[in-house]
Amino acid sequence: MARKLFGTDGVRGTANIEPMTPETALKIAIAVGESFRNGTHKHLVIIGKDTRLSGYMLEPALTAGFITMGMDVVLVGPLPTPAIAMLTRSLRADIGVVISASHNPYADNGIKLFGRDGYKLSDELEATIEASLDKGPSRRAGSAELGRAKRLDDAGGRYIEFVKQSFPKGLRLDGLRVVVDCAHGAAYKVAPTVFWELGAEVFSIGVSPDGMNINRDCGALSPEAMREEVIARRADIGIALDGDADRLIVADERGAILDGDQVMALIASAMARADQLTGGALVATVMSNLGLERFLREQGIGLHRAAVGDRYVLEKMRQTGCNVGGEQSGHIILSDYATTGDGLIAALQVMARIIETGRKASEVCRLFAPLPQLLRNVRFGDGRPLEARRVKQAIAAGEARLGSAGRLVIRPSGTEPVIRVMAQGEDEALLAAVVDDICEAVLAATRGADEAAIKAAE
Length: 458
Fold this sequence. Notes:
By secondary structure, the chain is an alpha/beta fold. Helices cover 38% and strands 20% of the residues. The strands form five sheets. The chain has a six-stranded mixed sheet with strand order 1-5-4-2-3-6, with helices on both faces. A five-stranded mixed sheet has the order 8-7-9-10-11, with helices on both faces. It has a three-stranded antiparallel sheet with strand order 16-18-17, with helices on one face.
């Protein structure tokens, strides 16, 4: 069964517009309850969220849907996505739900689902849920079987201790000056506390959420504020999280920005030296830089590439037996500790390398020079521009021009209506020309599809 509602990271859209309405949230909860009904035991659901205003609308709708299906609900409030994955396993829950649109602006929101094992649901399970959305439940709970809802007040503390357990025993962050940008998001309380409790001197920004400032000019997608704070505070390292804290971007003491590829290179090479890297490789996506691939080859470490999306990285990790994977965007999955990307756990591994070596972040964290890489997004309507002959011809021509010294990746986004066009190689002028040609072809195909739709309507 194909999925239409679920994308690469759950259901996502503009708040209070379908599918991000309370009506659809209610239906999703009922469909999940129908799909996960198993035996006579009282099923349990964990619901967490980030700091978006629309979370107040979606949280009670989901809660009502689960309760009508006879499932108990535990509400934990604003917490990072990986915290919900951890709590789902820890509390032996049947389902974990995160209300978040991750790095998107506040006007968007989303619903992510985790199974009892703490992993995101498979494409097949999501398709099953979609299929039962409009059918309605075969049986609602009786009056005496309705679920109950309660709040878990110490959820944040549980997650803080969980994250700290990933830090090497015997090490502390004493003397380390750390800037942490929480993007006015889900980690605004827990992230500064983790670093402070391990001994760091912490300078926090992005910790005053108002429901509408999440990810606005801050966080992993806009790390400039974090970079400036690092320089102003003469900090040793800066960490920028996104709205749900499952990804991070790092800045060294000079303010140089380091993306997920550099973080993966650092963690994987350190683990390989300690004979802790399983599978002899790490898993990245098709978007990761060729410089990472070359560095790993020099270190005798393999590289498996997966489709974009942390769910697909994790799927490949489980297939290949690798315990390190991630994305250039900053999702870092360390399966020895967590079942999903966790910005705080990844940050602690980077800081551990700094403490262990006694060297500066600029010396420890930048292990390779990235090849030039150009990424552009092209918005499209209801047409299918990648299937247009002109677009296929432009892509084939671009691949031929780049040859074996470059890479070309064109893909539709799973979270917004754009085509992402990315080229890598040594010649920046050539990259720009190739990307321009493909973007122009996509726009032309989109205009053609729109005109065809208008004519058909007439």
